Amino acid sequence: MIRIVIADDHTIMREGLKRILDGADDMKVVGEAVDGFEVLTQVRQGGFDLLMLDLSMPGRSGVELIRQIKDEMPKLPILILTMHDEEQYAVRAIRAGARGYLTKESAGTQLLSAIRKVASGRPYISLEVAEQLAMDAMPSTEELPHKHLSDREFEVFSLLVGGKSITDIAELLHLSVKTVSTHKTRILHKMGVPSLADLVQYAVAHRLIAPFKM
Description:
The structure is a single chain. This protein is an alpha/beta fold. Helices cover 52% and strands 12% of the residues. Strands 2-1-3-4-5 form a 5-stranded parallel beta sheet, with helices on both faces. The radius of gyration is 18 Å and the shape is globular.
């Protein structure tokens, strides 16, 4: 029996996931968490085999939370279930210690197989993510600017170039508008560009977002 804790701040999502898991004889939901603090409480209490984790929740979240969990419980399998389908999100999550990465759009058809694979000690990632991990491991003479962004900065960067406003990002990441504005300023400085339009052009050129269609 695979004992699972679901960490997601949306009640509808948690209930939907539980319905999917109820149909599996070898799985049981034994706990839930709605923010980073509850996740860490569940981790410290133990008594489960796999953590299903959303990347964006109130409190500590994202790659930072993955790193803290792995520091405290290195052997705990983590399956990321998120709205973010960008390969770079997945690469950073896997590097931080997650064993699998699945988008919420794919959860209905792939969730059970992903859980079984991750719980057994094997990774669950897409071919595109595997290729990105392999490319990043190869020696390169060019260190791209976005690789120097912190995990949180990259998260803000991805949302900015994806068309989200500072207010939207603050709500999504459960941060203050001032904090997001500070991240934006640091991102522009690190990337060496003067404006958001330049960030978008960079993101399109390096296939970090899809090109705009006329």
